[in-house]
Predict the structure.
Amino acid sequence: MLDRRRVLQTLAGLFLSSVGLGGYAFAWEPTHQGVTRYKLRPAGWPEGKRLRLAVISDIHVGSGYMPVSRVGTIVDQTNLLKPDLILLLGDFVASRDWRPGDPRPAEWATELARLQAPNGCFAVLGNHDWWHDERAQSARRGPTLAGAALAAAGIPVLENQALKLETAAGPIWLAGLGDQWAFPRWLQPRGMRGPHRGIDDLASTLAMVTDDAPLILMAHEPDIFAHAPARIALTLSGHTHGGQVRLFGWSPVVPSRYGNRYAYGHIVENNRNLIVTAGLGVSSKMPIRLGAPPEIVLVELG
């Protein structure tokens, strides 16, 4: 026979646990970023040569958890890591329509301009940097407000471009892919609606690479990795937020055609390397994080 007091205690415990878990997912985890570290030596990487990459993605400035002041904190935390190269992987703006009280792009770009690395700081744009720019959507091309703000702050935006850099590890190629979801289906002209359309052009980007120095690819969405050639030593992506809710290595919702295959972490396929960061901000449709805490990523190559 069931003990009534024990049943009530169990129900009360379950209720309090669910309240506590909800509070953690809504109020604590989304606001406390840490540093996630990876160490690897991709195929073709020069022996004995080391390079430290700091990776920041999906800030979503203007969301409930990301005022400009927190961007400043993220910048300070990143600079303390003393990286050789800093890479920004897109989605600088909130994942919703712009509101009058939102920070202007110049405000958060000015904070990001304080990032310091001897080999520079470079960026690519994400889907939300395109989606919430009415002029860019109407013209079906850039520049976007986010891209212009970064450029004005002295941060180069690579859009289907590859640059050769001289680094502590010797010469490397850094490539930035145009966004793969720049023009969403619902913003396409009537009669032309299909899947999300992008401005990505991997073939022309790789055509700029003229020698066999190691190549690092920045791509906001990780889906391109399924078609990336072995020539690319490392692909770095964001976009997924790690699913935002991740339990036992699985996320119920991942914004990728490949689901959990490229949801989060260090993925190795056919001796090719992909690192997907959970990023720092949240989606306006799901403003929580559980098991996918916000992160700055430090990649140590070599």
Observations:
- The first helix runs from residue 4 to 28.
- Residues 1-31 form one domain.
- The first strand starts at residue 34 and ends at 40.
- Confidence is low (pLDDT under 50) at residues 7-19.
